[in-house]
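Reopening this ticket.

The earlier resolution said the output was attached, but the attachment link was broken on my side. Pasting everything inline this time so it's all in one place.
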Amino acid sequence: MEPDPLSLRRILLATDFSRGAGRAKDYALFLAQTYGATVLVQHVSQPYPTLSADAVADPYLLEPIREQVSRVLHELTEQMGQTGVQATGQHTVGIASEEIIRTARENGIDLIVMGTQGRTGLDHVLLGSTAERVVKGAPCPVVTVRPPAAGREQDTVSVQRLLAPLDFSDSSFDALETALLLARRFAAPITLLHVLEWSWLRLNFTVAELAEDAQVRRDIEARAGRYADLLRAQGVTVETVIRGGGGPADFIVDTAEAQRSDLIVMGTHGRRGLQRALIGSVAESVLRRAPCPVWTVKQAKFSPGHRRVFGPIEQAA
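Inline output:
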């Protein structure tokens, strides 16, 4: 059998053993079973704000933590093993985001899966201090998974509809290539979303300006349509949505809710190449509010020899 171009052989599940991390475990297990990947389950003991790093690293204080973490990691990896997934556990001490990124680099990880709500129950505690930094610094794509809504804890993980925001940047092409491979694997349709930038939406409504805005929209619709045609040529069902008049994160979340998307696949920096601009103002907001997991692509990883479909339209056409 030809290897899957997405090249998911090693998955890192970063967990703090919270309810949110439990759903991330389900997602990592689902992907590992689908792609035949191994899973490295990592827990990071991070210094408490009131203690110095040296105090936490003291063997006297650390030994009870090691014993408890070792026991829970063993239970998790045993559970995964019973489903046929090869899993190992790893406990490290330090700053969570730094340890997760270092582990991913040292172990040649293809995908990081992590929750977006920690044991404190506050989204921002994990997103602000860990998940955002992991997304920004990871050497591979990252899937962030929110806890299930009340009453839906037993819902099975599935990928039946994908949402792919497209702003025509290199990062969004990497994400769209990933979305294509996922769509083919799961026989899932894709909603291709482009949000018009504020700079294109005028406040002065002269006839000439309205005509220019209308032409810009037609040009974008035509360009997005060409990418949609490339998806259809790959056997993928696709719907193109052009939105404008609001913030990109709002439209991404709203579209995901309206389409009942199972997964959002998006890049981590936009057309201007300013990574922080998207991480701070769009991606972070989407990660916090998305009704489904978010697969962020900073550095796409595909199998050697994979012939890409997506790039600038003059290259892809």
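Reporter confirms the inline version is readable. Confidence is low (pLDDT under 50) at residues 120-128, 272-280. Strands lie at 10-14, 38-45, 87-93, 111-115, 142-145, 162-165, 190-195, 238-243, 263-267, 294-297.
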